[in-house]
Amino acid sequence: MSSFLGVETSLTGRRWVGPSDETERLTQTLIQRADIEPAVAAILARRGVQPDEVTSFLAPALRDLLPDPMSLKDMEPAAERLVAAAQNNERIAIFADYDVDGGSSAALLIWWLRALGRQATLYIPDRIDEGYGPNDEAMAALARDHDLIICVDCGTLSHGPIAAAKGADVMVLDHHLATAELPDCVAVVNPNRQDEDGASGHLCAAGVVFLVLVDANRRMRAAGVQGPDLMGLLDLVALATVADVAPLIGVNRALVVQGLKVMARRQRPGLVALADVGRLDRAPTSYHLGFVLGPRVNAGGRIGAADLGARCLSTDSMAEAEKIAAQLDSLNTDRREIEQRVREAALAQAEARGLEAPLVWAAEDGWHPGVVGIVASRLKDHTRRPAIVIGFDGDDGKGSGRSVAGVDLGASIQKLAAEGLIQKGGGHKMAAGLSLSRAQLEPAMERLTELLAKQGAGTGGPGDLRLDGTLMPSAATPELIEKIEAAGPYGAGAPAPRFALPALRIRHTRPVGESHLKLTLTDGGPVTLDAICFDAVRSGLDELQAHQGRAVHVAGRVELNHWQGRTRVQLRLDDAAWAPE
Fold it and tell me: Contact 410/177 with Cβ under 8 angstroms?
């Protein structure tokens, strides 16, 4: 395929790739038969949406997309045991992971039980002292005082700790990759069990918990009892789905679309308080879930008290929510500072090792385990390759990895554990965690590189920039951007649309902070377009300051910039290339 607008090597070193011929034909068909804007038609065509599917795609309905809960194995014993525990006023404990998905999953159960007049004990392990997932000591202690322990977003590989919960029933509601042998407990509801067909494998843990609650409500209704309102809980499911980088396809789209509507009503104290400290003064989008709310919920589990996020999401007290949200906001600021130091050191180490291999990795003493995952994500974005970042405390290393589309990192990490090359590890396709000794580091990374290479990681150069089409500044109106947003939500599995704006002139540039760049662009007509380029210095796009009046192709995402009560169209500039004169 020829490059788009003839851009073989942009200022960031990328080749521009436009829509395929097939996608272009579908775009034209959608414009003619569905009567939608060309830009929106291009977005839907890239998703493969046919003309008769446009209406349902733009308004995804749970009644059409939600899988039958009973399609998941162990759903019946899980829902039955949960209902029995609630109706019999049994002592329930919830053991949850310390991230957004774990906290949201726990909050879902707590709100559901509260609506029935029941309470539950919340237990979130400390990331540093206990690590990920159930452990023997914690599970044994919970079992002494509870009748039922529900492990959410964890537990699938916790055979020993679950066995240590003597005297209590245990169920696992999870989505992480499983081995052939499952823990011996009441139920393991997990769409990524090896004996599942994978049809619901894209659900995060909160999505799994939601399905369990759907089935629990069904059973209560069959017995003549009205269950709690589940639609009102979708704000928590939406937050978890986006923050856990679950692909926004199928039912996940509907969960997020409906959840955003619930969140816009500002009824859950924790989410209201988090939105306020994040200065979110309008209806949230998937961007805000991933980059405003999610990081703050995660901050407690990363560098503070592990249970803060889950407590914020589950409290029904506005005063408590505001207090916790303030703590999380402060911790998030501290987290950013720690992350920046680790990111700079990790990138320097990875660059010294070379960025062309199938795997990019870095490891060092003292790197905080709460930020290695974020740094791995930054390395992955920078290199467009799977990345692993590991922090050592003495001989013990804890690491986290992030992957790129088409490369299953979780399965590869699990294989390392099975081969004895690491102490333990697991996850899912796009993210994974691992623990290993210092002596295991080099052999494990060498083997992981081999496994990822077999999946095609690292076969490309700097990577292609995929574009949905062209757009002129005069067409980038607030009305068009609202229609583009309506074709979302955007995130993992559904990247935000990028358009090329060809042959523009730079009217003005201004540095912002230490590394960003603000521009004013024009096509020679009366309309100008503001643009912001983040990390321009690092990416090489600061070269645009020396434009000397040359024409330039720019590419990025058009959005609405809300600032000081004004709303303006803005281009979030991702790349540029000098246009031939």
Answer: yes
Q: Omega before 489 cis (within 30°)?
A: yes
Place of tokens 């996020």: 309
C-beta separation of 106 from 314 below 8 A: yes
Rounded CA gap, 365 and 475, in Å? 52
Task: Give percent above pLDDT 90 in the chain.
Answer: 89
- What residues are paired with 577 via a beta bridge? 553
For 71, the token pair is 């399609």
Mean pLDDT score of the chain: 95
Residue with tokens 């042998």: 181
Pairing of strands 566-578, 528-533: parallel
What span, in angstroms and rounded, lies between the C-alpha atoms of 131 and 128? 6
Residues 6+ away with beta carbon under 8 Å from 272: 266, 318, 321
- The position carrying tokens 């020829």 is 2
Whole-angstrom distance, CA of residue 463 vs CA of residue 278:
33
- Do residues 158 and 140 lie in contact, with contact meaning Cβ atoms separated by under 8 Å? no
Please state, in angstroms and as integers, the Cα–Cα distance from residue 85 to each residue in 82, 119, 140, 169, following that order.
5, 11, 19, 10
Instruction: Report the residue count for the chain.
Output: 581
Interatomic CA distance for residues 235 and 89, integer angstroms: 27
Run of H or E residues at 383: helix 372-383
- Per-residue burial over 498-532, b if 16 or more Cβ lie within 10 Å, else e, is bbbbbbbbbeebeeeeeebbbbebebeeeeebbbb
Percentage above 70 pLDDT, the chain:
99
| pLDDT tens-digit map of 401-458 | 999 888 999 999 999 999 999 999 988 888 999 999 999 999 999 999 999 999 988 7
Provide, for the chain, the percentages of residues in helix, strand and coil under a 3-state DSSP scheme, each rounded to the nearest 5.
45, 20, 35
Q: Are strands 169-173 and 148-152 parallel, antiparallel or unpaired?
A: parallel
pLDDT of 230 > 60? The answer is yes
Predicted confidence at residue 460, as pLDDT, reads: 57
Q: Which residues contact 141 (CB under 8 A, 6 or more apart)?
A: none
- Rounded CA-CA distance 88/199 in Å is 34
pLDDT of 464 over the 90 cut: no
Both tokens assigned to 554: 């720019």
Q: pLDDT for 41-70, tens place per residue?
A: 999 999 999 999 999 999 999 999 999 999
* Beta-strand pair 121-123/499-512: unpaired
The pair of three-digit structure tokens given for residue 196, joined into one six-digit string: 């599942």
Q: 484: helix, coil or strand? A: helix
Taking CA 280 as the corner, what is the angle to CA 537 and CA 530, rounded to the nearest 5 degrees?
A: 40
- Tokens 């799994």 — which residue? 208
Cα–Cα distance between 47 and 488 in angstroms, integer? 11
Q: Which two tokens stand for residue 166?
A: 């003597």
Give me the pLDDT at residue 565, please. 77
With 0-12 / 13-18 / 19 or more C-beta atoms within 10 angstroms meaning exposed / middle / buried, residue 190 is: buried
Cα torsion through 230, 236, 239, 242, rounded to 10: -50
Confidence band (pLDDT; 50, 70, 90) for 168? very high
- Radius of gyration for the alpha carbons in the chain, expressed in angstroms and rounded: 24
